[in-house]
Amino acid sequence: MDAKKLALQCRELADNKKAENLLVLDVRKLSSVTDYFVIVSGSSSPHLRAIVNEITDKLREEHDLRPRALDGNLNGDWVVLDYFDVIVHVMRTEVRERYDLEGLWGDGGKVKPGEPGQGKKAGKSPAKKKKPAVKRKTGKTARKR
């Protein structure tokens, strides 16, 4: 799985547990340590624990991925999961405001989760079908409106 897909997968898994203010930052141009930061908030220590467990358990079960390192205390205010190319920060809201990672790494672009129909070519809308021509009583051809 490439780094961007992993980052978006971590975001989605955090969302499964109702994480708040989910953000994926592309820091490839800013950091030689990692490619993406996933930053999410939880409202309490049990909430943080549920988010962290969802991410680690699902990635292990579905993709055989384990974090290279886990830093922080599951009962604390900030847990970091290091998947090498993706670093996931799970933080209490007040801790997130205090350390302001978005401000520090804000020059990295925000990565939006895929839109429905992501497999289609981006930027192209389906072609509109022309309405069939109809003969008027006058004998002239006109387009249906």
Describe what you observe in this structure.
By secondary structure, the chain is an alpha+beta fold. The chain has a single domain (3-110), classed as Beta Polymerase, domain 2. Helix content is 30%, strand content 26%. It contains 4 helices and 8 strands, in the order αββαβββααβββ. The strands form 2 sheets. It has a 6-stranded mixed beta sheet with strand order 3-4-5-2-1-6. A two-stranded antiparallel sheet has the order 7-8. Strand 3 (69-72) and strand 4 (78-82) form a beta hairpin. Helix 1 (3-16) packs across helix 2. The model is unreliable at 115-131 (pLDDT under 50).
Tally the helices: what do you get?
A: 4
Beginning-to-end CA distance, first to last residue: 49 Å
Number of strands: 8
Low-confidence stretches: 115-131
Number of domains: 1
Shape: globular
CATH superfamily: Beta Polymerase, domain 2
The pLDDT mean sits at 83
Order of helices and strands: HEEHEEEHHEEE
- CATH class division: Alpha Beta
Q: Determine Rg (CA atoms, Å).
A: 23 Å
